[in-house]
Amino acid sequence: MDSEYLNSYNKLKSEIEKFDISSSPEDERKLLSELNRLSFIAFGFTKIVPQFERLTINSSLPNNNNETITEINFLKNPPPESRTKYGRANLKNQSVLYATFCLPTALNENNPEIGDLVTISKWGLKDINFRLMVYPVFDFFNTNNIQLKNEFNNSIKNYSQNLKEIIIIDNCLIASYFSKFVERGKEINYTLSAHIADKILNKMYNGKIEAIIYPSVKDRTRSDNIALKPEIFNQKYHLLEVRESRVISKKEGRIFLKVIKTTTKFNTEYIRW
Questions:
Q1: Using an 8 Å Cβ cutoff, are 213 and 137 in contact?
Q2: 196 domain-assigned
Q3: I need a surface site. Which of 5, 18, 60, 98 has the fewest CB within 10 A?
Q4: Number of domains in the chain
Q5: Strand 97-100 relative to strand 224-228: parallel, antiparallel, unpaired?
Q6: Span 133-181, pLDDT tens digits
Q7: Within-domain flag for 161
Q8: Range of the domain at 192
Q9: Residue 251, class by beta-carbon neighbours within 10 Å (0-12 exposed, 13-18 middle, 19+ buried)?
Q10: Which residue has the higher pLDDT, 215 or 227?
């Protein structure tokens, strides 16, 4: 990859980071017109993702006054009609299942307040032979995720050099959209990554891509998050453990919890604490 391309890529990343239509939402229509014309190679590969965790802030649920969650459904992705704003990988009125592989990342992403009850749910594959068709989002030239990069390289090793470079360029472009920091209250700036995610999950590769793995923007370690199609989540994963904790302090960017109770007892609908 020549230096001219890398310089152009770094300039583009800088422009995307400064991009802000929160003060002029009428520009959303113009942006969507451009995104609809955007084409790229949505290259996916199969990967075993054995388990992950979700963090739910109890009081964020309907009619929950910082109380214990008893219904498993409230630990899953929210219904589409409740998604009134763009998310990192979801359109308005579209639901995806967000999860993480590292609890501190989930805490930084959700940023609960002191006194909040939070529920951490651990989910695992129903069958150890299940695999996910994933699209990896990462900065090919600067990533610290060597394992994901090796899997990515191994998956494209038989392609021509020209096609490899196109795939890498497209991947880096998408990574620049996903790495944009978005302030709370300015979710319209997720327009870029949300529409790219919708293309990847639902409109390209014959709809075969089931999940997107991408680095956390709000966690300085850049550990991975995952966004799954809800139907794939329900088909391939089941609940392993639930624990309820209270946020007891926040200090120097870290959030500290006190575990209140843990259970592995539940049926298809309810948690037995």
A1: yes
A2: yes
A3: 18
A4: 1
A5: antiparallel
A6: 999 998 888 888 888 899 999 999 998 998 888 888 888 888 888 988 8
A7: yes
A8: 3-263
A9: exposed
A10: 227
